[in-house]
Specification:
Helices cover about 45% and strands about 30% of the residues. The chain is of the alpha+beta class. The strands form two sheets. The chain has a six-stranded antiparallel barrel with strand order 1-8-11-10-9-12. A four-stranded antiparallel beta sheet has the order 5-4-2-7, with no helix packed on it. α2 packs antiparallel against α5 and α3 packs antiparallel against α4. It starts with a helix and ends with a strand.
Length: about 350
């Protein structure tokens, strides 16, 4: 009896151990399957492509203010951030060269007028002496330019100076030669008395100098730079007192009424974007309100492409297109540079 009892207890213990082993196996399988499911979900989330968001930027027409005469910035009459009107004076340039040219032109005008009066009234002894002095002055100037040209010409033959410099000096020398001829003719005319042709030549010389004076007057007016449009001063480049060359930009004006949005969009996202179509955008800087814009320009950006795989064995370059869109209605407080997001 005792042996039967012990045997029965042994069988019960064996059954319990067998059940515990099966439970551990089952639990292990459950854990394994749970891990596999989690890994599969993570893999799906990892390989799922992110949604492409079309993001652009606000831009505006920008105008550069520059002058025709070189000089130094004397004064700014408008600063960055100021609103200006078309025609407002913004910058004054100090150009001593223009003043010097005006003085020269006025002196030439006086000399030309004297020659003209001499031709009209006949030469007096004082006029003859004056014509002679002008002739001698022209000869001296020709001699100076001749020597300069000979020096530059030798350097040019040796490749030391540029062709442009050589041509400039040669042109000055030829002008000096012409001045000598003109002064000589005026002196000869004073000696022998003026003829009708001489009178006409003297009058033409006066008219020519008047043209030079008019040209210098225009250059003086160019010292005052004005705004080409109504807008806002976005940037002042040189500081007061700094030197600016001819045509160098001095100030930048932004036309805040001519604003658009620029987007760089992959061609596989252009399906519903065509010329004249409308897009709904959101400008984070202006809150959650959405705005409508109209597509006005689409052009491929040839140097900008994104490689995109289309199959397991290959892929192709997806071109990016430059898309511009203008607001259908005015957007208050919109500034160039603000980010725009297309709402899908």
């Amino acid at each position: 009896m005792e042996e039967d009892f012990l045997k029965q207890n042994a069988e019960i213990e064996a059954a319990k151990q067998n059940m515990n082993a099966k439970g551990d196996i089952f639990l292990g399988l459950v854990v394994l399957f749970s891990v596999l499911i989690v890994v599969a979900l993570i893999g799906l989330l990892a390989v799922r492509p992110d949604k492409v968001q079309i993001v652009g930027e606000a831009e505006a027409s920008e105008y550069r203010v520059s002058g025709k005469v070189p000089g130094r910035i004397e004064m700014y009459l408008a600063q960055e951030g100021d609103r200006v009107k078309k025609g407002d004076t913004l910058v004054i340039i100090n150009s001593p060269e223009v003043e010097a040219k005006m003085a020269q032109a006025k002196a030439a005008r006086a000399a030309a007028e004297a020659q003209n009066q001499k031709a009209i009234h006949g030469a007096r002894e004082e006029l003859i002496r004056g014509a002679y002095e002008l002739y001698q002055k022209a000869l001296a100037g020709e001699e100076v330019y001749r020597k300069s040209f000979e020096r530059v010409d030798r350097l040019y033959q040796k490749g030391v100076v540029s062709a442009q410099k050589h041509d400039e000096v040669e042109a000055r020398y030829k002008v000096a030669q012409a001045d000598v001829k003109a002064a000589k003719s005026q002196y000869d005319m004073a000696l022998r008395g003026a003829q009708e042709e001489d009178k006409a030549a003297a009058a033409a010389l006066v008219a020519r100098v008047d043209g030079v004076i008019q040209e210098v007057e225009i250059a003086k007016a160019e010292r005052y730079l004005t705004s080409p449009v109504d807008g806002e001063v976005s940037e002042c480049f040189p500081k007061p007192g700094e030197l600016v060359g001819q045509g160098s930009p001095v100030m930048s004006i932004v036309d805040m009424t001519d604003v658009w949005f620029h987007f760089a969009i992959r061609e596989d996202k252009l399906k519903d974007i065509t010329l004249g179509s409308t897009l709904e955008i959101k400008i984070p800087a202006l809150g959650e309100e959405t705005h409508l814009v109209k597509v006005t320009f689409i052009k491929v950006m040839a140097s900008y492409a994104t490689w995109r795989s289309t199959q397991t064995t290959g892929g192709y370059d997806v071109k990016t297109f430059d898309v511009k869109a203008r607001p259908i209605n005015e957007i208050p407080n919109l500034r160039p540079g603000m980010t725009a997001i297309v709402v899908e």
